[in-house]
Amino acid sequence: MVRSVRRVFIYVSIFVLILILKRQLSTTDQMKQPVVVIGSGLAGLTTSNRLISKFKVPVVLLDKAASIGGNSIKASSGINGAQTDTQQELKVMDTHELFLEDTVHSAKGRGIPLLMDKLTKESTSAIKWLQTEFNLKLDLLAQLGGHSAPRTHRSSGKLPPGFEIVQALSKKLKDISSKDSYLMKIMLNSEVVDIELNNDGHVTGVIYLDENGSRKILKSQNVVFCSGGFGFSKDMLREFSPDLIHLPTTNGKQTTGDGQKILSKSGAELIDMDQVQVHPTGFIDPNDRKNNWKFLAAEALRGLGGILLHPTTGRRFTNELNTRDAVTMDIQSKCPRNDNRALLVMSEKVYDKYTNNINFYMAKNLVKKVPIRDLIQNYDLQTTEPDLVNELKNYSDVNTKDKFDRSLIINAFDGNISPETSVYVGEITPVVHFTMGGVKINENSQVIMKNSESVLSKGLYAAGEVSGGVHGANRLGGSSLLECVVFGKIAADNIAKLY
Ligand SMILES: Cc1cc2nc3c(=O)[nH]c(=O)nc-3n(C[C@H](O)[C@H](O)[C@H](O)COP(=O)(O)OP(=O)(O)OC[C@H]3O[C@@H](n4cnc5c(N)ncnc54)[C@H](O)[C@@H]3O)c2cc1C
Ligand SMILES: *[C@@H]1O[C@H](CO)[C@@H](O)[C@H](O)[C@H]1NC(C)=O
Ligand SMILES: *[C@@H]1O[C@H](CO)[C@@H](O)[C@H](O)[C@H]1NC(C)=O
């Protein structure tokens, strides 16, 4: 009796020991280390939130900047979605197919159609996720260039969309991190400089410089690059798009393509790196014309009815709602080459629709409210008052397609304007804005390797502007924030399966 009890005890002990050992092994093997997310823009915030809230998978979020948000915090027009509740409420007819068609058309044969399909199909759930998880209203719509329906969402209220979204998502992370610093850890002033791979090519950690510049390593089997584009880096522009290095940019100084460089050095494939989006409208600050960094004149300004006038003739010269590349080309080819400038003119109705933003531009001295008559003198236009009034009237009168093939005219000037009528006006110039190219990913947000037998990287993911192939040769306005949410969620969902 005693002996058999003893034997059972020994068996049970061995069994328990094996279980413990197995668990130990699987902890190292099976990636129980926190996921490392690099970059705290919308892609990184989405990935982190999804991992910790839905799956309780621990995350360390690193950013080299001193504050959260990257370029995402500056987004001013909004985020795309087709077949959303907001569209339904506002009785807008739209479909995934239509959104995909617009995206593929804008991409001009470049990029990866499978990713575009994912982007557009998942847009409904992306908007829904933001609305339900973070209480974001996203109840207003604008129709931006190249879109065949109003589908760029923003919230009524005072905050611009990028700021509002980043604030909501980062608040949730901070709340959780203050309660459970293992589940969520945020490390700012921490610059990732390299990754570490084992002999199988599986990622085992990231190397970063801490706030004091010391080289450190953070072990992890799953790393998500959300480090943004390279629009601020003259070196990278010189390498991939040398024609553009003389243009100013809207991108923050942290936008230097670190992820693209680190990953490609480690064998990742790059795609469409030469496809850099020039946004037609960066504001020229009249007190600081030469500054290389420019405030963006949000595309919503044109989407809501702003028009562009030639800076010497005072005539319209383009379809303001064409895609960004086309409007840019018209500014560059039709306006004087020496300063590539045009006037952005908005009616009182546009102001009513976009009041907080325009007030902000006015406070920064980038937009002024003046009577039509003063435009001629202030900007040295070679036109007469009646001609200028007529030009604006003509624009308001168009109800079929105009001579620039523009059909949608909203918030235009009405027929009884005069030289006394006030307009809102700013000077704009094309700016480097977004890098379509980047690290090649598949529809699971996994990084694709070149010359590798396994093709897919092991444990490396990318989401947001650092990745390439989602927009081809030209990104539609509002699709960048969307790509952050769609592919950030996908990365998180795929990683969570491993835990
Ligand atoms: C002015 C402006 C307005 C825009 N408006 C819109 C809009 O209305 N709608 C839209 O869809 N898109 C818009 N865009 C584009 C969009 O904002 C960006 O493309 C998008 O936010 C990119 O998000 P992300 O998360 O990929 O990168 P980001 O938001 O740029 O974040 C990247 C982060 O990674 C960090 N990082 C970089 N390298 C390292 C490193 N080595 N180590 C650690 N951290 C690192 C950076 O510090 C940064 O915080 C706008 C862009 C600008 C500049
Ligand atoms: C950086 O240096 C300061 C001052 O010596 C120290 O308090 C801080 O802990 C250091 N940071 C890290 C991450 O080691
Ligand atoms: C306005 O339109 C009329 C008729 O379409 C045209 O004759 C006139 O030149 C236009 N005026 C301007 C200023 O373009």
Automatic annotation (TrEMBL):
InterPro entries: FAD-dep_OxRdtase_2_FAD-bd, FAD-oxidoreductase_2, FAD/NAD-bd_sf, Flavocytochrome_c, Succ_DH/fumarate_Rdtase_cat_sf. The keyword Oxidoreductase applies. It comes from the Eukaryota. It is an enzyme of class 1 (oxidoreductase). Binds 1 FAD per monomer. Its cofactor is FAD. It catalyses: succinate + NAD(+) = fumarate + NADH + H(+). Residues 1-28 form the signal peptide. Keywords: FAD, Flavoprotein, Oxidoreductase, Signal. Residues 35-481 form the FAD-dependent oxidoreductase 2 FAD-binding domain. Pfam families: FAD_binding_2 (PF00890). Its EC number is 1.3.1.6. Belongs to the FAD-dependent oxidoreductase 2 family. FRD/SDH subfamily. Irreversibly catalyzes the reduction of fumarate to succinate. This is Fumarate reductase. It comes from Saccharomyces uvarum.
